[in-house]
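A note from the maintainers: we've had questions about how concatenated examples are separated. There is no special marker in the raw files; a new sequence line simply starts the next protein. For clarity in this README we add a label.
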Amino acid sequence: MALKLMYITNRPEIARIAESAGVDRIFVDLEYIGKDVRQGGLDTVQSHHTLKDIVDIKKVITTSELLVRCNPIHDKGDEYSSSEEEIEAVIKDGADIVMLPYFKTVAEVKRFIDCVGGRVRTMLLVETPEAVSVIDDILEINGIDEVFIGLNDLSLGYGKKFMFELLADGTVESLCNKFRARGLSYGFGGIASLGHGTLPSELIIKEHYRLHSSEVILSRSFCDVSHIDDLDKVKTVFVNGVREIRDFEKQCEKDAVSFAENHKQVVKKVKEILEF
C-alpha cells in the first residue's frame, strides 16, 4: 500500500499543485504555543498558520484530505483561546483530521479526544519522552484513529544529536509495533525527494515499508516554496518528485527481502553522520 504523502502549506495555489501531483493530505499547522522555546535556534519549520488558512485551503482541494495540527492542550489565556474553543473552530472550518502535538499525559489525550467528539479523525503526534513512557495507557483510549511519531521534538527530548537516531536505535520500531498491534494507522518523520536528505530518502522509505508505516511528511527540502517564485517550477518539482517516490514504492513492494539489509544500512549511515 502506498504511503500517504503529506505536505505543509497555507498557500492555496501550492495546495492545488500538491494535490494535482498526488499528495494525499494538505497539512495546515496552527501550532505555536511553546514551540519557539523548545525549538529555538534549530532549522525547523514554524509555520504560523491561522484558522483562516483552514477555510482558504478547504475551498481549493477536492481529493486531498485536510489535516490540521492544533496547539498542545491548553487553557484559555490572554493571547489565545482554550483547546476546546480552538478545536471547535478547526472542525467547523473544515478539518478532516485533527492532530494533537506535544502531549505528555493520558489526561491530555483524553481531553483532546473529548474535544473532537468523534466528529473527524484524530491523530496523535508522539514527540515527548513522557508520552512514550505512558504510550500503552494512552493507546487504551477510545477514539484514536492515527498516530505519528514526531522525530524532531522526540529526539530533542531524548538529547539526541540527529533525529534519525531514533530510527536506528529501535525507538521508532518499538512504537510502531505497539501501534500496529492496536490496528492503528501510523507514520513517522519526513522525507526529501529521492536522492536527497542527510539520511537518503530511499533508506527512510524502505524503513516505512519494513515497519508497515502508512504515512510520511514531504519535508520542506522536498519543495521549499519560499525559494521558488515560479509556480510552473513548483509544479514540476511536485509532479516529478511524487512520481519518483511512487515508482520507488513499487520496487519496495516487490523487494521485501531487502528490508533487513536496508535497516543495517540505516544504522551504519546514522553512525557515520554522528561521527562526521
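[label: protein 2]
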Amino acid sequence: MPDSSLPKYQIVFLHLAFWAFVLALPFLQQPSPMPPGTPEVPIVQMFTITQFFAIFAFINIPFFYLNSEILIPKILQKKGIWAYFLTAIVLVLGAFFFNSLIREYFFPNQFFPRTGSTFQLLFFLAVSASYRILSNNLKNEKEKKEQETEKLKSELSFLRSQISPHFIFNVLNSIVSLSRRKPEKVEPVVVKLSDLMRYMLYESDDTKVTIERETQYLSAYIELQQLRFGDDIEINFHDNHLDESQSIEPMLLIPFVENAFKHGVGMILNPIINIDLHTENNRLIFEVKNKVNRQFKEVKDSASGIGLANVKRRLELLYPDNHQLTIKDENDFYVIKLVIG
C-alpha cells in the first residue's frame, strides 16, 4: 500500500480497502456446500463472524500499524537493526499474550490453533515492515525528484536572468554605433528596443510560449538590426511552414541570431545572414548562417560566447534527449542548426 504521493483521503480509502479484502478472505475461501446426502464430517473448530473479527481486528491491525508507524521509523531507522529486532520480539510476544487473553476470557469453549496465530503475527510483521520500507523509499524518491526539479528551476531562472543583460548589452552597443553612423535612425531603433524589452520583462518568465510569439520576437530583433545596418548587410529570414501552436522555452533562439550579427558583420565583404525557422514532422528546425572572414582573426572580449554557452546549457536541461545542436563551418559560412523534437 505505498501512498507517499497520494492525497490523504485516497490513502485512507486504500488502507480501508486493503483491510476489507483481508478480512473477507476467510469467507471467500469457505468450501462450497456439500451435496444432499453426503455424510456429515465432525468439525473440530468453528469460527463465528464475531469471534474472527474480534481476534483479527483487535490484534493484527493494531500490530500492523505499531510496527509500521512506530517501530520502524522511531527504532529501526534511528537506533538500528538490533534495537528494532529486540523491540519486535517484545511486540510479537505481547500480541501473542493479548491474543491468548482474548481467547481465554471471551471464547473459552472454542479451540484456536496457536500456530495459526503465531504465523499471522509474523506474516503481518513482515507485511507492515515491507509496506513502511517501500513507502519510505517512494517518499525519499519523490523528495529527491522535487529537489532536482527545484534545482533545475533555479538554474534555468539564473540562465534566463543572464540572457536579458547580455542581450541589452549587445543592443546598446548597436545603438551607440548607429548614433555615430546614422543618428536619424536612433529613435525608431529605441522604439523597437522598447517592444523587445516588453517581451523580455513580461512574457519571458512563462515556462513556455507559442512558437508564433517567439517568432514575433525574433522578427522584431531582426528588424532592429535592419534599421541599424540598412543596405550594408543582406538579411534573409524565413519562417514558413510553422506549427504556430507549438510551444518553446522563451528566448531560446535569440542567442543564435545575436551571435550571427555579432560575428557576421564587420571586416566581411558583402556580409550575409540567413535565418530559417520551420516545423517538420512535429520537429522544430532552426538554422542560422552567417558569412565569415577567414583571413581576419576576431579578438573576442570577455563576454563573448556567454549567449551560446547559456543556450547550450538550457537545451541540456530542458530537452536532454530531445534536441540536436550542430555547429560547423561550411565554406565561407558559420552554420548553427538546432532540431527540437
